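Appendix B. Raw example, untouched.
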Amino acid sequence: MSLAPFDPIRILRALNEAGVRYVVIGAFAGRLLGSPTLTRDLDICYARDAQNLESLVQVLLGLGARLRGVGEDVDVPFTLDARTLRAGETFTFSTDAGALDIIGTPAGTTGYEDLARAAEATDLDGLTVLVAAIDDLIRMKRAAGRPKDRVELEILGALREEIDRLA
């Protein structure tokens, strides 16, 4: 299965148009804050209330979302609806606009409200999105503790120092 070209603006626009409450996290958020790290997926933390789950499902269906990392020859029972999202926390999708990971409660946080408090409204070519604060990105990477997160911690730490120096 070939991945669709990565078009994060298309995904973010669809989320905004549907009124989904989310915060951009992960490497894409770091990139928006000045990290040189390249990424081929978009990670969001989403609010887990019933209305938001319904809106998120509509966006995912509209983007042709399907589970990522599951071979085409493997039949995995999966129903993309609010009940399924409520029952899980983290889902990785391939969409018609590229890879999208949705995380209800990222490591080191209590979820959307926690991250939204310090998130920065960022303009992306006329599209306003909430981007996790650098300190929250660092907190999430530290809590996740994977090797790739430890590498990214060094980059984000240096970025944090540069931001402080320029302030």
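End of appendix B.
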